[in-house]
Amino acid sequence: MMQHGGKFRWGRAGLGLGLGLILAACQTVESSVDRTVDAVTGRSAIPFGTPGHVTGFLGGVAADEPRAAIVARDILSSGGSAVDAAVAGAFALAVTLPSRAGLGGGGACVVLDAQRGVARAIMFPAGARTEIPSGTDRPAALPAMARGLFALHVNAGRFKIEDLIRPGEDLARLGTEISRTLADDLAVVAGPLLADPSARQIFGRAGGGALKLGDRITQPDLSATMAQLRASALGIGDLYQGSLAERLVEGSVMSGGGLTEAELRATRIRAGGATRTALGSDLVLLSTDASPGMAGALQAAMAGQGLGADTSAGSGAGASLITLDREGNAVSCAFSMNNLFGTGRVVPGTGILLAAAPGIGRVEVAPLPVAILARPDLRRFRAAASGSGGQAALAATAMSLAAVQRRGGPADPYAGVPAPGRGVTISCAGLVPTNGPACIGAVDPRGGGVALGSFGR
């Protein structure tokens, strides 16, 4: 799963991550799967939808949180597309890294459909409010993530979206261990976060204080919310105009977020063609609406110029997730709550942490830099990158792509990225799908992310 030898190398988990846990989880998946090929048809004897179905090169995943990366990789191994893997990984991130991604927040994704030669961008930031009801002491952003993931999945997924919600739902119900990144985030904001009773029930230790690295976190209310999204006749729409929306509005008022039913119904995402900009002989596919400074950051990175850092504590905190499938289809996503843990308030009975409304106080819309590098015909993938950490996220994304363009691979692409910027990258020395195995996944070693991929057998 995490291979460092041969042509197909997926690199490094952040130091101090608890790597043994990740490898053990990977080995559990591998050991439970008999990767056999039917002697007559030459096809996998493992059914579609089961990890191990895909034989040979399956693609890969790079993400800021290990358990979500494993979820996404298992979808690829089961025969899912890059879009399927991204959707499942994102719902898992809402459980495993709620400080930076969640149903109460938002994000942006760029998608390369290499088989059709099409690129699109989906923008669903945790949105600003036009009117804040009186008595709202911590205004919540409009929760766009679920609607954005639905739009990402439409016409591109091979699995039903219900099946992609289920892994996150199970992680919330059964529990998962606190990762390095979540533990670090909890340490930063433990005081104000645990002042909220609903948040303290999730993130607090029985003896006092916040959960720490290796502690187990369970989120039964969030699991029930995901189960309702999966099983409701309204599907994702239940969060915006169904009984779940009613509970979210009522609870957000109690939590000081002040969401209204009219606002939830009117929550919109934006989807369209990705912006294209030349980078050498390739094209970079961007969502300039999500990160208007990305094109300039790319120019600066190619010229060897650095970008300044945003050192505000928690400012623009986000999470990245990249997926690549065996056909060369790719997705690059960034997610944010506009603040570490958003407003710091959890809507009672739903498990949903409310993102912070931008434009209120010092809160701004977090940059969501997502990019894919491809040949001009858009049928051959070269690289994908994403970043987090306020304005430094732009540098993390741009510098990794510049490294690919200059050297053919991300050889230490994050050495010059200013704190608190972090990035994840997948790049291929050849062109996918014709030379898929010659690919590398990389994550910033200062963070807690991981890159996963496999040849199969």
Structural features, described:
- With 457 residues, this protein is an alpha+beta fold.
- It has one domain.
- Helix content is 32%, strand content 19%.
- The strands form 3 sheets. The protein has a 7-stranded mixed beta sheet with strand order 1-15-14-13-12-9-8, covered by helices on one side. It has a 7-stranded antiparallel beta sheet with strand order 7-4-3-11-10-2-16, covered by helices on one side. Strands 5-6 form a two-stranded antiparallel sheet.
- Helix 12 packs across helix 13.
- The radius of gyration is 20 Å and the shape is globular.
- The N terminus is likely disordered.
Query: How many H/I helical runs?
Result: 13
Relative helix content: 25-40%
- Give the integer mean of the pLDDT values: 85
Structural class designation? alpha+beta
Please write the string of helix (H) and strand (E) elements. EHEHHEEHHEHHEHHHHEEEHEEEEHEEE
Give the secondary structure arrangement, pairings included.
Elements: E1 9-10, H1 19-32, E2 59-63, H2 66-77, H3 82-96, E3 106-113, E4 118-124, H4 145-153, H5 161-174, E5 176-177, H6 180-194, H7 197-203, E6 216-217, H8 220-231, H9 238-241, H10 243-254, H11 261-266, E7 270-273, E8 275-279, E9 282-286, H12 294-302, E10 318-325, E11 330-336, E12 370-374, E13 381-388, H13 392-407, E14 422-432, E15 439-443, E16 450-453
Parallel strand pairs: 1-15
Antiparallel strand pairs: 2-10, 2-16, 3-4, 3-11, 4-7, 5-6, 8-9, 9-12, 10-11, 12-13, 13-14, 14-15
Helix pairs in contact: 1-2, 2-3, 3-4, 3-5, 5-8, 12-13
